[in-house]
Amino acid sequence: MSTAAAEHAPGRAGADRFAARARGLTKAYGSGETTVLALDAVDVDIARGRFTAVMGPSGSGKSTLMHCLAGLDTASAGQVWLGDTEITGLKDRELTRLRRDRIGFMFQSFNLIPTLNAAENITLPMDIAGQEPDQQWVDQVIDTLGLRDRLKHRPSQLSGGQQQRVACARALASRPELIFADEPTGNLDSRAGLEVLGFLREAVDELGQTVVMVTHDPGAAAHSDLVLFLADGRIVDEMERPTAEAVLERMRLFAGGGRQTPDATFDGTAGHED
Ligand SMILES: Nc1ncnc2c1ncn2[C@@H]1O[C@H](COP(=O)(O)OP(=O)(O)OP(=O)(O)O)[C@@H](O)[C@H]1O
Asked: Which residues form the signal peptide (predicted)?
């Protein structure tokens, strides 16, 4: 498996190919007898310009991995790079700036500001950072996401799918090196969910973005280029060009600790299909 076999001293060498990397990434919560090892010496390479999905049973470490790669949480041991910047060891203020300038986030709850219209929500992170939006790029994002005629609407005047599209546009607007999406379809009906997945796909294929998505849904993961499977804080497998059926089958294997039981600890189901 390429992640496990990856070189162990990546330095700056792979920064062109990889948007993020981790070596020996370990995260422990608590101490003494109550210690939880959420990540256990994870090696991972996130390829630029690709759509990577992270799957695994509840509690397997998906969110922790995303948070550590995105500099939202600090590692207990190991190293993390964003491009050629090692983020392990950065101070809080430096991490805040790095997240603001180089990473886009999409969460299950869209986190839109209710008093601002769609256009204002989309450029809010840049406005806060005092950055001048690249209007041509922002226009391209808005048109790609089909939001042109919704820009003056406030979140309450938009459907769930439209709100998630605004959240998607906000994540893309500053043209970040890497977009992290945590269950981006979790609150949506299957049609709106499919739309959002289609837009993330377009962000990668047409806008050249890099996306990492945490999901429980094999149907959602099927939109990615590569699925990483986590179990007990380790990457235990990966799958290129996934289909929903193949992902579901693989999940059943891991969830059952090798037993092929469909109802074990995974709380996702086959969800929406392509
Ligand atoms: N702040 C915390 N304090 C203590 N333990 C934590 C904390 N955050 C996560 N954990 C533990 O770390 C492990 C991994 O959690 P994590 O949230 O990364 O899993 P997950 O795969 O994202 O789960 P889910 O699919 O349920 O969201 C779990 O055992 C969890 O209980």
From this structure: none
